């Protein structure tokens, strides 16, 4: 384990982070879509409103705040909700409160002190925590003293004013004071994406891990959700929830012994798409059609544009109506058989192409891919194939790799070439 995790604290990663504004469960789906577009990891924490009035001098403790946290709402949750038949037929669906959409799980967020060691924060995230709530209403000025001397050549003081009080204890510069500056708590939210961004900045301290292949590290997750391209896309919403929030769209190879990935239905891909168009496509298209067209038709539409639709290959919900706006043919999809997708590989490429790497890719290359694309995961293909799927690597796998003891793995075929060489978009 790198010493950087022992010397750094959570507060070091929150410098410059904006104050979190709570998004309440009474807000509408329409408001959630706007908030998600400005969020990290394609999702937003959802809160209950305070039951106790904000009385003068009242300070909410961490336990009370934890109980108010509902869960994390992402773009895939909203698209899946809007794709329900009762929502597609109701223009008021965008005004529904998010309490009817979000899956309750208050274990996904945990409040921590800015002085919490980074290694302890990583362990929490490895156990399933996706957001860390860090108080901002404390005196905290940047990097921890123990580590700052290695980079700056001098001690940094975390107190507000180095000359304000000569009676401060010597270790007060190591840990932030917990005295509140106001009766109203202020917090920022630290995501796993923030942690990966920090790790990219200290790759040298993690050597030799960054240049080690993900297969050598043993972090390729083979327990992922998938759906065949010939099945209705709506079937993907019936898969159990997992991390990352993504479903691979697969098609059998010519010898029918393996599956190749042609796209994905995920919170990452749907992050800033046209939610109404995506919901219509999810309810009416095959999975193969969906991954081709959902992001290629991103003009603004209203629900009335999608009320007259047709399910590919016949009737849907007992009615057969004419497609009005969104047409798979208009985006170049013309399957010769409703049960078998026989289209060229190039038809699937472009904006909807899945983010992939190879089993031989280095850990640093995968981390760089995720950050540059603002993705929560990267699909892993065979070393000698561009699309035969092996597994997936997400935030959890990366955090597991960087916190492993050196004896936990023995690099066999370590590559010391530039880690950007393996990056695929």
From TrEMBL:
SUPFAM superfamilies (alphabetical): CBS-domain pair
Pfam families with a match to the protein in the record: CBS
InterPro entries per record: AMPK_gamma/SDS23_families, CBS_dom, CBS_dom_sf
UniProt region (Disordered), positions on chain: 159-182
Domain CBS: 347-409
Keyword Ribonucleoprotein: no
Biased composition (Low complexity): 159-172
Position of the signal peptide: none
Keywords from the named record: CBS domain, Repeat
Comp. bias (Polar residues): 173-182
Protein name as catalogued: CBS domain-containing protein CBSX6-like
Source organism: Camelina sativa (False flax)
